[in-house]
Automatic annotation (TrEMBL), chain A:
Pfam families from the UniProt entry: MNHE
Keywords: Antiport, Cell membrane, Membrane, Transmembrane, Transmembrane helix, Transport
Membrane topology: Multi-pass membrane protein
Top-level taxonomic group: Bacteria
PANTHER family: NA(+)/H(+) ANTIPORTER SUBUNIT E1, NA(+)_H(+) ANTIPORTER SUBUNIT E1
Subcellular location: Cell membrane
Protein name: Putative antiporter subunit mnhE2
Keyword Protease: no
From TrEMBL, chain D:
Domain of life according to the entry: Bacteria
Record's bilayer topology term: Multi-pass membrane protein
InterPro entries: CPA3_antiporter_subunitC (IPR050601), NUOK/Mnh_C1-like (IPR039428)
PANTHER family listed in its UniProt record: ANTIPORTER SUBUNIT MNHC2-RELATED
Gene3D superfamilies per record: 1.10.287.3510
Cellular component terms per the entry's GO annotation: plasma membrane
One Pfam assignment: Oxidored_q2
Keyword Glycosyltransferase attributed: no
Database matches in NCBIfam families: PRK08600.1 (NF006372), PRK12660.1 (NF009303)
Full protein name: Na(+)/H(+) antiporter subunit C
UniProt main location, coarse: membrane
Subcellular location: Cell membrane
Automatic annotation (TrEMBL), chain E:
Bilayer topology: Multi-pass membrane protein
Gene: mrpF_2
Cellular component aspect of the GO annotation: plasma membrane
InterPro entries cross-referenced by the UniProt entry: MrpF/PhaF-like (IPR007208)
Protein name according to UniProt: Na(+)/H(+) antiporter subunit F
Family: Belongs to the CPA3 antiporters (TC 2.A.63) subunit F family.
Subcellular location, record wording: Cell membrane
A single MF term (Gene Ontology): sodium:proton antiporter activity
UniProtKB/TrEMBL annotation, chain G:
The keyword Transmembrane is annotated on this UniProt entry: yes
Organism phylogeny: Bacteria, Bacillati, Bacillota, Bacilli, Bacillales
UniProt KW keywords: Cell membrane, Membrane, Transmembrane, Transmembrane helix
Family matches, as InterPro entries: CPA3_antiporter_subunitB (IPR050622), MnhB (IPR007182)
Protein's name according to its UniProt entry: Na(+)/H(+) antiporter subunit B
Keyword match DNA damage: no
Amino acid sequence: MPAQLLLNLFIAFLWMTLIDEDELKFTTFFAGFLVGIGIIFFMHRFFGTQFYLRRLFKTIKLLFIFISELTQSSIVVLGQILSPKLKIKPGIFKYETVLKSDVEVTMLSLLLTLTPGSVVMEVSPEGDTLYIHAMDVEQSKAGLIKQLKNFEKAIMEVTR
Amino acid sequence: MTITLSIFIPFLAAIFIPFIYKRIQNRHIGWFVIIVPIALFIFLASFIPSIANGSTYMHTIRWIDSAGIHFATYLDGLSLIFALLITGVGSLVILYSIYYLSERESLGRFYVYLLLFMGAMLGVVLSDNLMMLYVFWELTSISSFLLIAFWYHRKKSRYGAQKSMLITVSGGIAMLAGFIMLQSLTGSFSVREIVATIGQYTDEPLFLWAMLLVLLGAFTKSAQFPFHIWLPDAMEAPTPVSAYLHSATMVKAGIYLVARFTPIFGGEAVWFYTVSGVGLFTLLVGSFNAVKQTDLKALLAYSTVSQLGLVMSLFGLGSVALQHGYSPDSVIYTQATFAALFHLINHSTFKGALFMVVGIVDHELGTRDIRRLGGLMAFMPITFTIALIGSFSMAGLPPFNGFLSKEMFFEALVNARNLEVFSTGTVGTLFLVVAWIASVFTFVYSMIIVFQTFFGEFHPERVEKPSSEASFGMLVAPSVLAIFVVGIFFFPNVVGNYLLRPAMTAIYPSFAGAEGLVPHIKAWHGFNPALWMTIGVIILGTILYKLIKYWRGVYTIAPLRWNLDTAFNAGLTWLEGGSHFITRMYMKGYLKDYLVYIFTFFIVAVGGSILWTGSYSFDFTDNSPIAINEFLIVLAMAGAALAMIFAKSRMTAIILNGVLGYSIALLFVVFRAPDLALTQTVVETVTTALFLLCFYFLPEWKKERSARKTKIMNGIIALSAGTIVTVLALAVQGNKMFESISVYFEDAYLLAGGKNIVNTILGDFRAFDTMLEVVVLFIAGIGVFTLIKLKTGKEDKDIEDQ
Amino acid sequence: MSVNEIGEFVGALLILLGGIASVISVFGLIRLPDVYTRSHAATKSSTLAVLLTLSGTFLYFLFREQFVSVRVLLGIVFVFLTAPVAGHLLVRAAYRSKVKLADISTEDELHDVLYKIESENDGTSDKS
Amino acid sequence: METLITVLVGLLVTVAVYLLLSRNLIRVILGTAVLSHAAHLLLMTMGNGLKKGSAPLLGENANSYVDALPQALILTAIVISFAVTAFLLVLAYRTYKKTGTDDLHALRGFNDE
Amino acid sequence: MIETMLTVSLVLFSITILIAVVRIVLGPSMPDRVLALDMIGVNLIAMIAVVSIILKTKAFLEVILILGILSFIGTIAFSKAIERGVIVERKRDR
Amino acid sequence: MMNNIIVMPMIIPLLTGIILIFLRSYTKTQRVFSILSSIATVVVSLVILNRIQHEGILRLDFGGWLPPYGILFVADSFSTLLVVTTSIVTSILLIYAFSSIGKQHEHMFFYPFIFFLVAGVNGSFLTGDLFNMFVCFEVMLLSSYVLITMGGRKIQLVESIKYVTINVLSSWFFLIGIAYLYGTVGTLNMAHLSVRVAEVGQGPLLTVISLMFLIVFSLKAGLLLYFWLPGSYSAPPTVVAALFGALLTKVGIYAMFRIFTLIFYHETVITHTVIGIMAILTMIGGSIGALAHNDIRQIVSYNVVIAVGFILAGLAISSEVAFQGAIYYLIHDMIVKALLFLIAGTMIYLTGKAKIQEMSGLIRNYPMLGWLFFITMLSLTGIPPLSGFISKVYLGQGAIETGSYLLLAVAFISGIFVLYSLLRIFLNSFWGETIISEDDDVPLKKGMLVPCVLFAIMTVAIGVGAEGLAPYVSDAARTLMNPEIYIDAVLQGNR
Amino acid sequence: MRINDVILRTVARIVVFIILTFGVELFLSGHNNPGGGFIGGLVLSSAFVLLYLVNDIETVRKGIPFDFKKIAAFGVLLAVGTGFGSVLFGEHFLTQAFGHFHLPIFGITELSTVVLFEAGVALTVVGVVVTIILTISEDV
Ligand code: NA
Ligand code: NA
């Protein structure tokens, strides 16, 4: 994968030297980079690995999942704060994740924590269990776990 | 030139003595030392004829030219008398000391001090420049200090030395102030120039101050009441020292000063009353106290005090002659001065001899206590003879020189009674009575010396050593002095014509050559009042001496028992105790107190002057508008700040400080200061981190248990400080007087090639500040490292460990 | 209205929304019963607020001055990255420093795990 | 604005002085910190007026700029007060470790002879 | 219009800060206070952004980023202090 | 014309300090390098002093930026005399440090801090910019903070907390004083400040602001606000105490002279009267304090206080002669105070005791030390022909000329207290029965004695050879008396 | 239960690089934009502070085995040295020179001795801040 990036940069640089006679410009480099992307996308099977920008698309997908979750739960929490009577039942629950690497667990935790109504309190020393504080355990635990699964899947698409 | 050199010779000798002392083994070092005074005496004596003919010698070496301070020597009749006394008596004292001091003593040190003193004393009497005089004046105090404490392991020696040093140096400092005033008046430090021009300045208020200050110097040095208290304690010095410094020479420096300054200050009523009054009173006090002494040396010390008083008073009386300048009528008053000079010489001879006698007694018997002594005449005939001559001369009996000068003293007093000037009438009579009473006591103690020591029964068990006559060598010096005592009685006019005449001319320049300035001294002058007074003294004195055990009780009567010494000691103790008390009162060691002092000073000085000068004119017209959000932020900051005071935990306070810091960063943004906002943010964070780093180790805050009153006081101080800062700032904002220089920096790009003005100021216009600021930071960094890592091994003994 | 003006308006609107979100979240900070619930209000709602504001700012500069502010973008990424971490750390610190959960809390699956092991540790250290 | 900030400065000074007069070392150090905040703000108000002009960056082509000199001075002052605070804090820390107290009443020094 | 919106949001942010200060003062627990401080930091970022728009300058965009970085660092330091007392360990013991 | 040489008295120590950081583990090299560079500083400053005699006041515009916009160093006779003395005193004290401070300190950057301190001190003397003076002060102060705590004994820590806090406070006053002044007249260059203040006349507001500076420099100098001084000067190692005693208060005094002769000299009725009263109270307080204690270090420290009052009496009098006196006294005091502190420290080192009643008869075992102390005592009392004398004469003249009799009286009487306080040490500790037998006494290292002897020689030399200094001193006093000389030199051509 | 800092450490790894880059950028752009040696240095040191907060001292020391005191000293030397450099060229102490140079790749570039000066400042700041924090932390 880094090989693809290096190659892409090389193409861009080559492009730049080919196009510009006397002056070096960033815009030319960028254009060369785009050209490189195209070339590598066509050729990536020869490397025996995935096209390296595929992750980008997956990441963007993850981002959108996140933003939608964020908006939904934000509204829920804002509503809870603003409701004349506090009707919440907060609590801590345990969630065992299928994710393995540090980066994956971190990403999951960040996303979960960013969405309102839940905070990751602890990660077990082994890194496979998250302890989560939820704003309203009784009502949203099921929803939260669904959200977690959603995130797990999206994350794995990016990282694996 | 040679005269100047004569001052230096003793100093030079003093430098070499320690080296010689190390080299020689079998010869007393004194034999080398004695060469110096003898040579100098001969040298100075060679000037007698020319000086008697009216010559004077002057020589100047420039020293601190810009200040008019020169090394100017001046030899005239007055200085010559003193110079001869210094070297003459000096020679005899050293001769005496050779036998008196054993080789076990640290003689090197002794003679160094003695030579230092001799040089200093010569310097005093030969100086023309006041500053040079002062130099040597203090040097005599110092060498005297060293000599008194020669046996410094004795507590009493140290005490005596300290006392003399404190009193004489203090007087010296006063005198210095007086000298400087004289210079300010006349523009010169030269005595001769001042004498020449002083007439124009006598009406200035400064003139009087200068006079009193100079007199303070003279009185302290010459042990005049109430400064005489140092002299008896100075007797802790080895006897040769007492004979030399504390009878013959140093104590006469004050007399010299008065004589020297008579042409300047004489003729003033204040001078007359002060000098003669203090002199007479000292005479009375000294003689009265001498009688009760049981230590022979102490007795001599008090006698010296009284004799110095006598001489002093004579100079006072003699100054009257200058009141209207020269006239044939006023010459008569100069006789007092003549008597003073004459008695000065006489006193040196008989008192020197007496001190040496006491030294011999002490040396041979191991005690000087009159109550233990008696009957020494039998085995110390020569010593007895000398003592007799000395004492009788002191008592004013013929055929000894003391008689002559004593008679002249009485005559002067009688003359003074008739004085028209200064409306002396009744005071003159008082003077006369005082003098006469004092003379009676003088007679009594003189008799005590002779009779209680040498007559009566000898009790061997009361003395420490077996008794015998002193060695020949020890007797030489006092004998010579005794011969002078007798000799001067028979040939007084030799002294009068060759030594006193030029001295009189020096003191009364306007009387030079006047008829009767130098009278013909006669032992027999008919039955005049003075003689009757002497006879009275003898009769009453004899009676009092005989009946002494019946009236000794008066010394225990309250006012007479009171002792200035006790007062002095109490004063010092009180001074130390009081100082300790006061210092402890405000130097408690609490940081808080110190800060309170500082803020109080700030509030009083700055706040007070704001109110006093009314510098609180405000002008709010130029204020920028406030947005609501800015106001709210300021409100938040105010809240955070106030909350810091009441914060119950340390971390809360730290957090609140963080709020302040970050909010200030926002204010910097509002005020268009991006660089500041950036710096503030980072610095605040790092500071907070540091607080937390150090925080862990500290215990949780305890509630301040300060009293409510303290809290209110603190609050008032804090509020006042805050108010003053604000008021002053508002006043400044309303009173901008100039445009700032910072307009210049707006050309930063042209000048320094940078578009960020602040950065160009920091990196270029004021790069030096930045460089140093980096250094400050660096020092702090390395300093923190050192502070934590350097732990010296030894632990707090509260003592320097390195 | 030109495209730029619309862009600017959207930017300002986002900022205003951010302001409102911020006030609401601070309302939560006052209102909610314990530090854990407050942390929800603080870390998330205010993160949302700042994200809205920064996005608005980004848009504003983009449309107003045709200026792509990398710093603002970086700022957004940064807040995204750090805000949850900060929240997580704080809540953990609170729990480990034994700040009590509010009474209305219903379950606590962490308590036993954390303190059972700790007391075991204490036991071993006593023996040694 | 100037007046508002000046009053704030006065308040900060008041708080700082009150903290300085306390018995607790950390409070004293916090006092010095607040004191320097106040000084920096005060310096700010001493320029040619707050908010009058643009940030002193020539690249922005404004008509007038705020006074840059006080800003430079404050920057220097901030760094210096940071250095001093750091040292003072460590000093307090070290003193506490050595003496076991941060109560200034217990830290009198020479006078407890 | 835009101007008003911006001003209003500035006021809103400063109200947030003001209330957060109240939370700091009230506590009750230390994490509460740090939370409020963190919130103040975040809101300051927002305010600076808005001020930049109002002043039409890019001069303060750096400050936004810096403030983000540092309030993060500050919060870490505080939570470590609360959690473990020590904020920088010599050697991680467990 | 290029006057880069006048930055050298600051830059040489600065660079030396930095380079010594890298030489941490090479003690010998550190020493050699230290002494060489401090001698170089002496030479350079002497060269500057003489150039001023020929060329008048020298100035160096940093970065070539003309005053009042840039920062500059200004070397006039007054400042340069102090720089020279500082450099000499430091060189001699370094010799003492070599044999006394110990490996541990040397390994912990002791010499760098000394050099930073000197850099700060010299910078403060030379700078022509008020804010830069603030920064130079900080360089000096930070170094002093470190030096006073070095070793970390309890007493050091406790005293330095007070010292640091009070100095932080005074730096704060300095900063807001600068703020006010800048707000009012819009400039920082001292000569330019003088011009502007003169132009509007020193009104009430400016007078009030000047009092802010009075507070700052009084704190630094120990004028009336001296309570921090005795404790903090008693705590550090001997060399450091000597350095403090000799240099630190002098910087405050210098600044006071500079500010109140160059800028705020219009309203003497207020400012100089206040200074006079403060000087009197300082002398009294110092005198009382010097008698109040039995601890040598305290006695010695209060003697510093007395001297401060004495010198500033010269400023209160404010005549050319009085200035001369004050300048002579400054030089004298730097040397003799260093000597006094060294001797006191050596006594404590030798006996392990600090109270006068606990030591006795030292002169038998250490005669040289005893006589050095004796000379010091006399010199401080103002006994001629030692160095304290001439200043006393000049100050007296100044006081009399201007009718400041109270100042005169207190100044001269304080001399007696100096004498008495030191006499107590001499009589109790040097004289008296020898307690230590000659066998088990601590040997007095040559390296400790030599610096003392050098200082003693200097006090004699300055006293006897006062005329040699006269042209410099009178030039300095003339410049102080006539601010336009300084102003012309700084703002030549661009006023 | 042992503390698992996985989230913090993972994020910090990224954040540190952002801060470092930003710090260098601030340092370089200081002459024309907000920033400069001080701020750059401060930001760089805050990156180090973050490293120490997240990891322990020994770990960081293995990764960055510098003596920060020496770095600071070198910084000061550089700052003072640039001042001295101008003396060698016969200019006033601390005279900064700047000019526009044609460099390969960068084109017309403004080069200024101020950069050296500022680099010294930045190095000092980094060295000092890290030294202080390390020293205290090690003293536990
Ligand atoms: Na003693
Ligand atoms: Na003793």
